[in-house]
Input
Amino acid sequence: MKLTCPSCGATASAEAWENDVEARKTIQAIIALPREVAIESMFYLGLFRPQQRSLSWRVALRIVQDLAALVAAGYVQVQGKPARPCPASIWAQGMRQMVEQRGTLTRPMKNHNYLRQIAWQLAEKLDADLEHRRV
Output
């Protein structure tokens, strides 16, 4: 069975990816993410791919591990603003927005700061909507 990475376009057999330790760890880390985040993460990883090169499994693993820590926290915070509750669905929505606007982003992305800003805005809107419904 041949698998093609939607982010970098690499094609290899399932066995080849299973035999690469970093590839296996990356795939396991993605599978461990909440479902909606895992789905979006495959496309989100493409934003970190350097021009003219593929994204190494080692770098992909670090990106996914950092993403997992953000999602697991259950909140999002950006500098100078209060923390907001942030469920996995908001992180997934933020990644989807970034992928949709990839043509306007400076790539490769270096960190998750822009995702954090988008997630914070979405979480703030959700928080305001919930507060409005309570009133």
